[in-house]
Amino acid sequence: MKLLELKDITKSFPLGNQTLTVLKDISFSVDHGQLMSITGPSGSGKSTLMHLIGCLDTPTSGTYLLEDKNVSHLNPDQLAHIRNEFIGFVFQRFYLLPDLNALDNVALPQLYANKSEAQARKAAKATLESVGLGDRLYHYPNQLSGGQSQRVAIARALVNNPPLILADEPTGNLDSKTSQQIMDIFTELNKTKKVTIIIVTHDIEVAEETNRIIKLLDGKMIDDIKS
To answer: Whole-model pTM above 0.70?
Structure first.
């Protein structure tokens, strides 16, 4: 069953008196429960594509269906609602709020979804425990290692039980051992919870740990490898 589908997606930006086309006629679909990656060199368009999939931006042309809903031309408030309901994000730089401990960082998406503080903290505690951080609930970001911070970020992405997790260079700031631990978490989440996970990465070794690799070059999709 399809979770999302992109049809002839193009994204352009004004550049002085000219137009810069970053994505050109991108078409593919993603089924529920896939663990996949989008890869390519710098400037290939993979971050722009992630922004479109994550409803952080809209395409210049083409159609984007998310669970059969056309989200191609929604306004910012509508996109924000879609993101909160359907998508969890994990970024290279973690983006944890420094004045909040791990528990409160993870509880935030629950509060945005109008859960009570008690409900939010209960869900945050359970989710942090599920990524191995039950003993770090009250630690602040400056008291956590890079790998622990990324696990907090993964828990924050998971806490609302979205069907889709988007991870943008999630291992980019981590050493090889910690990177493997993060990839193991993604693999286990995909296997046990059937969460659809799309990892955007320039690291081919990370990409090869997924079951499908979409390769971009100069804004075009040049390969779609399924294992």
So the answer is: yes
